[in-house]
Amino acid sequence: AERASLMDLLDLLPDLDDEAAKALARAAQRIQLTSDKLARRHLLTAEQWKGVEADWRAEWIASGGYKQFPDVWVQDRLGEWPWSAQRKILRSVFRQRKTAVVSSYGIGKDWTAARAIACFLDLHAPGEAFVVSTAPTFAQVRAILWREVQTAFNKEVARAREDKRPSLSDRGHRLNLTEWWIGKEMVGFGRKPSGQNAAAFQGIHARRVLVVLDEAGGIPETLFEDAEKLVTTEHSRILAIGNPTHEGTYWHRVCNDPDWNVLHFSAFDTPNFTGER
Known about the structure:
The chain has helices spanning 2-7, 18-30, 35-39, 46-62, 65-68, 70-78, 84-95, 109-123, 138-163, 221-230, 250-254, 271-274, and strands at residues 98-103, 129-134, 173-175, 179-182, 185-191, 208-213, 237-242, 261-265. The protein is of the alpha/beta class. It has an eight-stranded mixed beta sheet with strand order 3-4-5-2-6-7-1-8, sandwiched between helices.
């Protein structure tokens, strides 16, 4: 009965795996929503069950649900629907120290990375988190990833106003072309450092750092090494995304490194071929 009731909340946690089910079950226990009560759900009116679901969801969010399942943050805060590969990427970023995504073109990697950045900076208190991104050229930094970051930011603000809750802007967040600020404090930026600049990312300190390496096949080993030096704290993360176009590169080595959680996605995995929503 409990499992059946959990399955009814697919709109809360799509792709409901065992870990997601356990997270919901723990939230249910905290609000004393027992298996017996779930089994008697048919005795409740639709309005009463809606209230139960609202309490359940609120408890799940308050206990860190978005940090476990940032794909649900994307749904709730932006009104968007990630497909299964994007869900796996988002969850890996928030659960694994190092995530590498190697895939065909056109699966939505930059879209996903931008949502990870927005979620990361939204969920952590000012001064606690910092985001760094880079790519082989500054044009790629500005015109691809950070354009998507701006889109995500704007959607969060619009959605929040519809829901009558404080938006990122209301809480002092703002963007320029490749920088994210909270008040007078910069909390994220996109840069294209010189490949010879060994100190490209030095001096960045925060309890939680997210580094995004876009078009990772074109990023030199020195920048990979600098990026990895930033994610030594327990809750810091690194996301590298790229296409499997060149053997012998440092990116090729990363994609075969057991220290990284490497996610592979083919063009044939996409909704274009599978019919997934």
